[in-house]
Amino acid sequence: MKLSNDQLERLALHSAFALHQLAKWVATQPDVNPEIRDRLRAHVEAIDGVLVNNGHDWIRDEIEATEDALRS
Hints:
Layout: H1 5-26, H2 34-53, H3 60-71
Helix pairs in contact: 1-2, 1-3, 2-3
């Protein structure tokens, strides 16, 4: 399957937002292994950086709140 650049960007954005929603849920679960929480937080931080660098800073506060929750 060959996707256009626009389709690839949309797929990447939807995937990033889906991962963020899962990370937000994981952050509320007290029994998640700390190593998994830390790795997930690192990925969410990387996604945050890419989104902000590409003009999607409107979600930054929510993503940073999720990162903080994963640290707890």
